[in-house]
C-alpha cells in the first residue's frame, strides 16, 4: 500500500491580496478560497453528508471539545475514525477546543499546563492540554489539526491580549512537539493578539519561527466591528508566509468572507449559514430573505428561478414560509441546504474571478446585488 501523500498548498493566481489555489491531501483537493461547513458533533445539522458534498464543499470542520465529550475520541478511533463514523470521505479540519476556552468561561479553569473543563453535558471534569488536543485530533483522524490556543473576546485590555497571545505561542510550541512527524496531516498555528497590530505581528513572527503547515487568524468575530476585523486582516496577512494557507476562524457572513478574501484569506468556517436556515433566513444573490415574514405567505414564486440551486427553483416562497412557521423539520433541511449552497457559490465565484483577474469587479457586483434587495412582487402576485 503506498504511503499517503503529504499535505501541500499550491497558489495558482492572485489579484491584489486576494488569492486562489488548492490544498492537496490524500483524501482529496481543497479549492481555495474555501468555505468549510461546520459539523460540530460529527454532523452538519439537517444535512446528509452527500447533500453537503453536492453544495460544492471540499472539506468539513469538526469540533474537538464536543467530540471528546460525546462520543469520545477513543470511541471514534475504535470505529474507524471520524471519516468512516460520519461517512464523509473527504478532508476534515478539527478545531482544537480553544474557542471553548472563551465561550465556556464559567465552566473552565486555565493554567499554563492547559484547561480543565466542566462538561456542559453532565458536569464531569476533563483536562485539555496542547498535547491532549493533538492526541484527540489524531484519534479522530483529522486531516488538518489546529494548535490549542486561548481566544479572548473583544474589546479587551492590552495586558490581557498580550497574556493570551504569549500563552498561545507557548502552547503552539508544545502542539508542534506533540504533533511530531505526520506528513499525511497538516498542523496549523493560530495568530492571536486581539486588535493590537504589534501583538499580532509578534504572534505571527513567533509562529513562523516554530514553523507550521498553515496559519490561522483567531480571535476575530468575537465582538469587534467589521471594520476592525478588516483592519487586523490587512495588517496581519502580509506577515504570514505566502506559500502556506491562511484560515480565518469562525467567519462569517457573506460580506465578511468577501472582505477577508480581498485581504488574502484562503479558508473560512462558520455555523451561521445552517443556524440562519434553522431560523428561517436564507442567503441569495439579492440579499437575506426572512421567510418568516408574512409577505411570503401567498407568494407562489420560487426563491430565485435563476439560481443554480434546484431548491431555490423548486419550492414556492409560500411553501417555505409555511414550513418555517409550522417549524417542520423539512424547512430547516431545505433552508440549510440553500444557505450552504449559496456560500459555496460565493467562494466558487471568487475563485474564478481571481483566476481571471476580475475579483474586484466580482465583489462590487455581488454587493450591488445584495444592496438592490429582493425581487419586487409583480401585479397579480
UniProtKB/TrEMBL annotation:
Keywords: Glycosyltransferase, Queuosine biosynthesis, Transferase, tRNA processing. Its EC number is 2.4.2.29. Pathway: tRNA modification; tRNA-queuosine biosynthesis. It catalyses: 7-aminomethyl-7-carbaguanine + guanosine(34) in tRNA = 7-aminomethyl-7-carbaguanosine(34) in tRNA + guanine. Catalyzes the base-exchange of a guanine (G) residue with the queuine precursor 7-aminomethyl-7-deazaguanine (PreQ1) at position 34 (anticodon wobble position) in tRNAs with GU(N) anticodons (tRNA-Asp, -Asn, -His and -Tyr). Catalysis occurs through a double-displacement mechanism. The nucleophile active site attacks the C1' of nucleotide 34 to detach the guanine base from the RNA, forming a covalent enzyme-RNA intermediate. The proton acceptor active site deprotonates the incoming PreQ1, allowing a nucleophilic attack on the C1' of the ribose to form the product. PANTHER family: QUEUINE TRNA-RIBOSYLTRANSFERASE (PTHR46499:SF1). This is Queuine tRNA-ribosyltransferase. The lineage of its organism: Bacteria, Pseudomonadati, Pseudomonadota, Alphaproteobacteria, Hyphomicrobiales.
Amino acid at each position: 500500500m503506498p504511503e499517503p501523500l503529504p499535505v501541500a498548498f499550491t497558489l495558482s493566481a492572485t489579484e491584489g491580496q486576494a488569492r486562489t489555489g488548492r490544498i492537496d491531501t490524500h483524501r482529496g483537493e481543497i479549492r481555495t478560497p474555501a468555505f468549510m461547513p461546520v459539523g460540530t458533533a460529527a454532523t452538519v445539522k439537517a444535512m446528509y453528508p452527500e447533500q453537503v458534498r453536492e453544495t460544492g464543499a471540499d472539506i468539513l470542520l469538526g469540533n474537538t471539545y464536543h467530540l471528546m465529550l460525546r462520543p469520545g475520541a477513543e470511541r471514534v478511533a475504535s470505529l474507524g475514525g471520524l471519516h468512516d463514523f460520519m461517512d464523509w470521505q473527504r478532508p476534515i479540519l478539527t478545531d482544537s477546543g480553544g474557542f471553548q476556552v472563551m465561550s465556556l468561561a464559567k465552566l473552565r479553569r486555565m493554567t499554563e499546563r492547559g484547561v480543565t473543563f466542566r462538561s456542559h453535558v453532565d458536569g464531569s471534569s476533563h483536562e485539555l492540554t496542547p498535547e491532549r488536543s493533538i492526541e484527540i485530533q489524531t484519534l479522530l483522524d483529522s486531516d488538518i489539526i489546529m494548535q490549542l490556543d486561548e481566544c479572548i473576546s473583544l474589546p479587551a485590555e492590552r495586558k490581557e491580549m498580550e497574556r493570551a497571545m504569549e500563552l498561545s505561542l507557548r502552547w503552539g510550541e508544545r502542539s508542534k512537539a506533540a504533533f511530531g512527524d505526520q506528513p499525511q496531516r497538516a498542523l496549523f498555528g493560530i495568530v492571536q493578539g486581539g486588535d493590537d497590530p504589534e501583538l499580532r505581528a509578534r504572534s505571527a513572527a513567533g509562529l513562523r519561527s516554530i514553523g507550521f503547515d498553515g496559519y490561522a487568524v483567531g480571535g476575530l468575530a468575537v465582538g469587534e466591528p467589521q471594520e476592525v476585523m478588516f483592519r487586523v486582516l490587512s495588517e496581519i496577512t502580509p506577515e504570514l508566509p505566502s506559500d502556506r494557507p491562511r484560515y480565518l476562524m469562525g467567519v462569517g457572513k457573506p460580506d465578511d468572507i468577501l472582505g477577508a478574501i480581498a485581504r488574502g484569506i484562503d479558508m473560512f468556517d462558520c455555523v451561521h449559514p445552517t443556524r440562519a436556515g434553522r431560523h428561517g433566513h436564507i442567503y441569495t444573490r439579492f440579499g437575506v430573505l426572512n421567510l418568516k415574514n408574512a409577505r411570503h405567505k401567498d407568494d407562489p414564486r420560487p426563491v430565485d428561478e435563476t439560481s443554480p440551486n434546484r431548491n431555490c427553483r423548486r419550492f414556492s416562497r409560500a411553501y417555505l414560509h409555511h414550513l418555517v412557521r409550522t417549524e417542520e423539520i423539512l424547512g430547516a433541511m431545505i433552508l440549510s441546504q440553500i444557505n450552504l449552497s449559496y456560500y459555496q457559490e460565493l467562494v466558487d465565484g471568487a475563485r474564478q474571478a481571481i483566476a481571471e483577474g476580475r475579483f474586484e469587479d466580482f465583489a462590487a457586483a455581488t454587493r450591488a446585488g445584495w444592496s438592490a434587495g429582493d425581487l419586487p412582487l409583480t401585479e397579480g402576485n
